[in-house]
Automatic annotation (TrEMBL):
Keyword vocabulary terms for this entry: ATP-binding, Disulfide bond, EGF-like domain, Glycoprotein, Kinase, Membrane, Nucleotide-binding, Receptor, Serine/threonine-protein kinase, Signal, Transferase, Transmembrane, Transmembrane helix
Domain of life: Eukaryota
Gene name for this UniProt entry: LOC127770958
Lineage: Eukaryota, Viridiplantae, Streptophyta, Embryophyta, Tracheophyta
Residue ranges of the TM segments: 460-484
Name the UniProt record assigns to this protein: Receptor-like serine/threonine-protein kinase
PROSITE patterns: BULB_LECTIN, PAN, PROKAR_LIPOPROTEIN, PROTEIN_KINASE_DOM, PROTEIN_KINASE_ST
EC number: 2.7.11.1
Keyword Protease among UniProt keywords: no
InterPro entries (UniProt xref): Bulb-type_lectin_dom, Bulb-type_lectin_dom_sf, Kinase-like_dom_sf, Pan_app, Prot_kinase_dom, S_locus_glycoprot_dom, Ser/Thr_kinase_AS, SRK-like_kinase
Taxonomic source organism: Oryza glaberrima
Catalytic activity: L-seryl-[protein] + ATP = O-phospho-L-seryl-[protein] + ADP + H(+); L-threonyl-[protein] + ATP = O-phospho-L-threonyl-[protein] + ADP + H(+)
Span of domain Bulb-type lectin: 23-152
Gene Ontology MF, one: protein serine/threonine kinase activity
GO biological process: recognition of pollen; response to other organism
Length: 815
């Protein structure tokens, strides 16, 4: 019994093993031939793999629906990226592709066909794109001559054999796990020296090698202008400026290495532990992370506690507690005045590197203090008692503590701050509850990376062997399982999901506090509907926003976010742009653009138009609104990446911008709000006004399709014509009427179109009297005809939204 089961298991393992071989042989290629392409869909399978399998190239997920085309280390656990083609412009997760075109260029195109990146090799006899064992992606001709190679376009990482040169520099990423270019550079400066530089929006400065020293004190040379540096497979880096360093595991050629300019501004050499998939730092440029410039922004101070941490000095507050590179600002902002207004706070063991106004030696402390006191631009001064060195500072950057050689900074602050400090005997660093650690990946500099080949080695081999056997077994079983059960290939492959921190261009996650601030505590309510209240707000970057507080949502956070990721990538000029969301229990908020002219119902149904001086919506605008809304719905129904029924089309959900261009809002909400309840329940919860809901939605058991929106749109068309709510219209006509009877009556009227005169007068009676006959008869007649078809009780007889939009567009320019 037992042995049979074991046999069975062995067979299963063998089968999965064989299927793995078949899978890898069938799927993985290292060459993309001319005319071939790689699609973003099934990104985990659509990859080029170098012949030895050490590198992979394909689409790399940076966030929901945002992908880059990249080369990564196959064996590293988090699929560390070595090179990125389009680091600053990720492409869409659906429909994007990388293609070696017949004209010879390798291009990356977005879902809409736009070329996002190209090797610019069109017109060459390029025959293939190939991923080499070195991690170099090359475009070559039939004879093997390289026409283009990724080694010539480094991003933030050098691989063994890949040089940094006069023209090629490394640029850090902007944050952990994000591909975007950051502010740090590794490059040859104009005097042929390899440098690390912070090149921020306000300042730029070099911090490695030590900027205090002359180049000869740093053991470099400025006389070799060939400007070339690289490391070899043994882990030895050499450069033309005589920079030379070795990996701590130097000599081991079987190890894969990378030299990466990390997002925290430090340059590190890493070795891959292939069995565990983890990286070890084997060399680091800046031993003390706080010596990297720009980390804590202007006026910020970096300290070790025990990791690098940013804080503001006393009298200063953070500009943005979530992004310390934005630094601190003075509060209160007192710049000068006599001794009764300002004073100096002593900050021992501190330095703010750079930005000295001038440098004077042999002055007394009081003279130095007076120099800074009298100069409104002076923010602080440094003083060394022994030598009488005095250096007033015009700006405070690159602050760090503690430093060597020791020195003291005297910071100019308002006297009130100083008094408070003395009374509370508080520290000169002002943490304000905001102190946060500068994230550092393998910060274990110094001792930890130096371990290695010692007498533990036998055990290490022994356990490694066991571990490898176990890992290999586990991989076979897992891969076999995935293969057999056809699990989601993306989930099986390497996926990195940064919590939707970025989805395509602007879509992002907001914190509740951020939105509370932006809306002044949700004070300015601009609308209230069945799905929640809407508040006006302004983001820190000046964008006006509308924040919708979603009512009772029962579904899980992941579901909410995955629905949002669909909504977030919808982009159409007649749909309100969704900029982000907030999901912090119990709050669920949706952030969208603010549309200035309010909703259509306010513009259309204001009865007291004449008395209050509000201008009646003119015919041109009404027609434009009809066309715009039709386009938006057609887009949602037919063109959108994911098919969406709005389910709540009504004037309240049609917003008007400055030019009375309509923007439909609340699309996709029905999906957000339904899920567990089923669409009928959801619909009745979502519905604002009865009059707009298609009849089939009231009957349980009938499927709800896009035709429900067509019905609602028909009602809106009638209201645009009439300038009155259809329910009021029906009620006024005759108590017993309903919309169906009104539609039938209108249909009858339209049929008798032989007498143009008669139809014309009849139309004038029907169309909004406030227009005083100033409307386009052809357009009005067409709108009416469409409206009557749209509100047909039988969904199948209603036209599609595409047909409606086309009809309206065809008459748009009729005068
Ligand atoms: C291709 O050419 C464009 C436009 O000149 C340039 O921006 C881009 O960097 C080039 N790409 C490569 C990989 O050479
Ligand atoms: C330069 O080399 C000398 C001799 O090897 C060494 O003592 C010194 O620390 C080096 N200087 C720097 C800045 O690395
Ligand atoms: C300059 O540097 C290059 C590359 O490191 C080296 O091959 C060359 O010999 C150097 N030239 C001189 C004059 O030192
Ligand atoms: C690196 O190793 C080489 C030997 O390959 C040695 O000559 C050199 O001095 C070492 N450099 C440093 C900085 O340790
Ligand atoms: C691929 O990686 C393995 C393990 O790290 C290493 O032994 C092998 O030399 C690498 N192959 C190449 C071509 O670099
Ligand atoms: C330094 O600058 C201060 C203020 O700008 C000025 O008063 C002083 O004379 C300067 N000292 C030197 C030595 O230039
Ligand atoms: C601090 O104490 C001084 C007297 O020692 C007093 O004048 C000042 O108002 C106090 N400041 C605060 C903020 O309490």
């Amino acid at each position: 019994m037992m042995s049979r089961r074991i046999h069975g298991m062995c067979l299963l393992v063998l089968a999965t093993f064989l299927s793995c071989i078949a899978l890898s042989a069938g799927d993985h290629r290292s060459v993309l031939w001319r005319g071939g392409s790689i699609a973003v869909e099934d990104a985990a399978e659509n990859v080029l793999v170098s012949p030895s399998g050490n590198f992979s190239c394909g689409f790399y997920k940076v966030a929901t629906n945002a992908y880059t085309f990249a080369v990564w280390f196959t064996a590293s656990a988090d699929a560390t990226v070595a090179w990125t083609a389009n680091r600053d412009s990720p492409v869409n997760g659906v429909g994007s592709r990388a293609e070696l075109r017949r004209d010879g260029s390798l291009v990356l195109q977005d879902y809409d066909g736009r070329v996002v990146w190209s090797t610019n090799t069109s017109g060459t006899p390029a025959d293939r794109a190939q991923l080499l064992d070195t991690g170099n992606l090359v475009v070559a001709d039939a004879a093997g001559n390289r026409l283009w190679q990724s080694f010539d376009w480094p991003t933030d990482t050098l691989l063994a054999g890949q040089p940094v040169t006069r023209y090629k520099q490394l640029v850090s990423a902007s944050a952990r796990g994000l591909p975007y270019s950051g502010y740090y550079k590794f490059y040859f400066d104009s005097s042929n020296i390899l440098n690390l530089m912070y090149d921020g929006p306000e300042i730029s400065s070099n911090y490695w090698p030590s900027p205090f020293n002359k180049w000869w004190d740093n053991n470099r040379t400025a006389y070799n202008s060939s400007r070339y540096g690289s490391f070899d497979r043994r882990g030895v880096f050499t450069a033309s400026d005589q920079l030379q360093f070795n990996a701590s595991d130097m000599g081991d050629e079987g190890v894969m290495r990378r030299l990466t300019l990390d997002y925290d501004g430090n340059l590190r050499l890493y070795s891959l532990d292939a069995a565990a998939g983890r990286w070890h730092v084997t060399w680091v440029a800046v031993g003390r992370q706080c010596y990297v410039h720009g980390l804590c922004g202007s006026n910020g101070i970096c300290s070790f506690r025990p990791g690098p941490t940013c804080s503001c000095p006393v009298g200063y507050v953070p500009n943005d507690a979530s992004d310390w590179s934005k630094g601190c600002r003075r509060s209160p902002d007192v710049r000068c005045g006599g001794d009764d207004v300002v004073d100096f706070v002593e900050m021992p063991h501190t330095d703010f590197w750079g930005f000295d106004v001038n440098y004077t030696a042999g002055v007394t402390f009081d003279a130095c203090r007076r120099l800074c006191l009298d100069d409104c631009n002076c923010k602080a001064f440094g003083y060394r008692p022994g030598t009488g060195r005095c250096y007033p500072k015009i700006a405070l950057w690159n602050g760090r503590i503690p430093i060597k050689p020791d020195q003291t900074i005297y910071l100019k602050v308002a006297r009130s701050v100083k008094n408070q400090m003395i009374n509370q005997s508080s520290s000169f660093l002002h943490f304000d509850g905001h102190a946060c650690t500068v994230d550092e990946r393998d910060a274990s500099v110094g001792s930890s990376y130096l371990h290695g080949r010692s007498n533990e080695i036998n055990f290490i081999y022994f356990y490694s062997f066991l571990a490898v056997v176990f890992v290999v077994e586990a991989i076979f079983v897992v891969v076999g399982y995935l293969f057999v059960f056809r699990a989601d290939p993306v989930a099986a492959g390497r996926v990195r999901d940064d919590g939707y921190s970025l989805v395509f261009s602007h879509f992002r996650r907001f914190t509740y506090d951020e939105l509370s601030d932006a809306t002044c505590g949700f004070r300015d309510e601009i609308a209230k509907g069945g799905t929640g209240s809407v508040y006006k707000g302004v983001l820190e970057d000046g964008r006006s926003i509308a924040v919708k507080r979603l009512g009772e949502l029962t579904q899980a956070d992941e579901v909410f976010r995955s629905e949002l990721s669909v909504i977030g990538r919808i982009n159409h000029m007649n749909l309100v742009r969704i900029w982000g969301f907030c999901s912090e229990h119990p709050h669920r908020l949706l952030v969208s653009e603010f549309v200035e002219n309010g909703s259509l119902d306010k513009a259309l149904f204001c009865d007291d138009g004449e008395s209050s001086g509000v201008v009646v919506l003119p015919w041109r605008s009404r027609y434009k609104i009809a066309v715009g809304v039709a386009k938006a719905l057609a887009y949602l129904h037919h063109e959108c990446l994911e098919w969406i029924v709005h389910c709540d089309v009504k004037p309240e959900n049609i917003l008007l911008d400055g030019d009375f261009e309509p923007k439909v809002t609340d699309f996709g909400l029905v999906k957000l709000l339904s899920r567990d309840a089923g669409s009928h329940m959801a619909l009745s919860r979502v519905q604002g006004t009865r009059g707009y809901i298609a009849p089939e939605c009231w009957t349980v058991g009938r499927p709800i399709t896009g035709k429900a929106d067509v019905y609602s749109f028909g009602v809106v068309l009638l209201e645009l014509l009439r300038g009155q709510r259809v329910c009021d219209w029906v009620a006024a006509a005759d108590g017993a009427w309903d919309l169906q009877r009104l539609a039938a009556w209108l249909k009858e009227k339209l049929k008798r179109d032989d007498d143009e005169e008669e139809v014309s007068t009849w139309l004038e009676e029907l169309v909004d009297a406030r227009l005083r006959g100033d409307f386009n008869h052809v357009q009005a007649a067409a709108m009416l005809e469409l409206a009557v078809c749209c509100v047909d009780g039988e969904p199948n007889r209603r036209p599609s939204m595409n047909a409606v939009a086309q009809k309206l567009i065809s008459l748009h320019d009729t005068r």
